[in-house]
């Protein structure tokens, strides 16, 4: 009977702990509500980690009474990783800045360099096409 009661208590504790952790891990806590500052809108981006554990033990003493123990615990960690700044006075993608708060990983650096190279190549190709079009005379 004591074991069944203890298991029921652990199940209730686990459910209550998980419910609280899930409440803490919501989209609003990862992407903040926009904050307007002058002609800019600022949005923070965070990463979250979640840990959870439970344990139970029982002892049957040879010289005294035995015992039962249990524990439940969990934690949520929140780390800001970036700030998005949207400048309302600049239209298009030029008005959006992403400011990273942590140095990029090796993969992040490589992806950033690849994206920069692709963007530069596309821009050069577009400029070259525009120059060719302005120098070509239409033939009738």
How would you concisely characterize the structure shown here?
It is built from three helices and four strands. The chain has helices at residues 2-24, 27-30, 106-135, and strands at 35-37, 40-59, 67-87, 96-100.
Task: Give a description of the structure.
The model has no long low-confidence stretch (mean pLDDT 77). The chain has helices at residues 2-24, 27-30, 106-135; strands spanning 35-37, 40-59, 67-87, 96-100. β3 (67-87) and β4 form a beta hairpin. The N and C termini lie far apart (98 Å). The chain has a four-stranded antiparallel β-sheet. Helices cover 41% and strands 35% of the residues. The protein is built from three helices and four strands, in the order ααββββα. It has 140 residues and is of the alpha+beta class. The protein folds into two domains: 2-102, no CATH class; 103-140. The longest helix is centred in the C-terminal third of the chain and has 30 residues, at 106-135.
Q: Could you give the order of the helices and strands?
A: HHEEEEH
* Strand fraction: 35-45%
Mean pLDDT score: 77
Tell me roughly what share of residues is in helical segments.
Answer: 40-55%
Return residue spans where pLDDT drops below 50 for at least 5 consecutive residues.
none
Number of helices, where a helix is a run of at least 4 consecutive DSSP H or I residues: 3
Number of strands: 4
CA distance, first residue to last residue: 98 Å
The description of the largest β-sheet is: 4 strands, antiparallel
Radius of gyration, CA atoms, in whole angstroms: 29 Å
Strand order across the largest sheet: 1-2-3-4
Count of structural domains: 2
Structural class determined from secondary elements = alpha+beta
Which word captures the global form? Answer: elongated
């Amino acid at each position: 009977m004591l074991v069944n009661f203890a298991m029921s208590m652990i199940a209730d504790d686990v459910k209550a702990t998980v419910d609280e952790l899930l409440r803490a891990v919501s989209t609003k806590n990862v992407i903040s509500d926009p904050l307007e500052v002058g002609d800019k809108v600022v949005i923070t981006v965070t990463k979250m980690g979640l840990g959870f554990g439970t344990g139970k033990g029982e002892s049957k003493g040879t010289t005294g009474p035995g015992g039962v123990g249990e524990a439940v615990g969990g934690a949520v960690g929140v780390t800001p990783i970036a700030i998005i700044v949207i400048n309302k006075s600049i239209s298009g993608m030029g008005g959006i800045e992403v400011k990273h708060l942590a140095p990029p990983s090796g993969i992040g650096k490589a992806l950033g360099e690849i994206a920069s190279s692709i963007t530069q190549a596309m821009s050069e190709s577009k400029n070259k096409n525009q120059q060719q079009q302005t120098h070509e005379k239409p033939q009738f």
